[in-house]
Specification:
single chain; 257 residues; alpha/beta; Rossmann fold; 6-stranded mixed β-sheet; globular; binds adenosine-5'-triphosphate; membrane; Metal_Ion_Import_ABC
């Protein structure tokens, strides 16, 4: 069995008395691609921030393997557009980077020709690849990608997911992704975890997509396959502070807790 890199154990977090995450259990192993899905504001990025140590959980524990080394790709590049900065110089800012690895990494990602380009003139897809290059230059055994295909057209999304899968195959690293592009990402994912305060559904894409919960959450029969709709129907009701009050309607999506 592959080495487990990270395990979230009963992670919970509250802000100003409001429970955002409650009792989250999930894990990521080497060679595994895990995709985190859920409605806007359900706490996906917060869970990533907890993993990165940028946010403290209110309860529970993140168990990290002693060899864990994370390469993080944020949702967006936050750089002052008036600041002159080439791709090469941007990547040279990675702490401890081996500068000889910059060009080969860009070659792997198909953007070697952009090495002397200014970062603020890059297209959406090019920017995402530069951010992926930065994550890879950290020599990770876990890639953490927060909405990696944001701002990328559909063809570009397929290419990026293929690249990510290829990187997993080559490096044998684990991958944790947040995504809204359910149909495209499913084909490249080993495990899907759907959160909405708690873990609502999880498992292989085959298991999850065949599950009534998934269909109630994301699928509208006959609708455009590329459109994912968050119509999250619980089989229970949440109280004011997030507690689960009832589970009396078994025609609704079944959540796993
Ligand atoms: N430090 C904080 N203090 C107060 N509220 C916070 C804090 N961090 C996050 N939140 C709130 O938690 C909620 C979840 O945010 P988060 O960004 O984790 O959701 P998300 O699932 O990643 O959303 P999206 O899909 O829209 O990116 C938001 O309502 C946000 O305002």
């Amino acid at each position: 069995m592959n080495k487990q890199l990270v395990a979230f154990e009963q992670i919970g977090i509250s802000f100003n008395g409001r429970t955002l995450l409650d009792g989250i259990d999930m894990s990521i192993s080497e060679g595994e691609i895990v995709t985190l899905i859920g409605p806007n504001g359900s706490g996906k990025s917060t869970l990533i921030r907890i993993l990165l140590g940028l946010q403290a959980a209110t309860s529970g524990e993140v168990v990290r393997h002693k060899t864990l080394r994370i390469g993080y790709m944020p949702q967006k590049l936050h750089i002052d557009p008036t600041l002159p900065l080439t791709v090469k110089h941007f990547l040279a800012l990675v702490r401890g980077v081996d500068k000889h690895q910059i060009l080969p990494t860009l070659e792997t990602l198909g953007i070697a020709h952009l090495i002397h380009s200014q970062v603020h003139v890059l297209s959406g897809g090019e920017t995402q690849r530069v951010l992926l290059a930065r994550a890879l230059l950290n020599k990770p055994n876990l890639l953490v990608l927060d909405e990696p295909v944001q701002g990328v057209d559909v063809n570009g999304q397929v290419e990026l997911y293929n690249l990510i899968e290829g990187i997993r195959d080559e490096l044998g690293c684990g991958v944790l992704m947040v995504s809204h592009d359910l149909h495209l990402v499913m084909a490249k994912t080993d495990t899907v975890v759907c959160i909405n305060q708690h873990v609502c559904c999880s498992g292989s894409p085959q298991h999850v997509t065949g599950h009534p919960a998934y269909q109630a959450l994301f699928g509208v029969p006959g609708a455009d396959e590329s459109i994912a709709i968050y119509a999250h129907q619980h089989d229970h009701v949440h109280g004011e502070h997030g507690s689960i009050l009832s589970g009396d309607d078994d025609t609704h999506a079944n959540c796993n807790h």
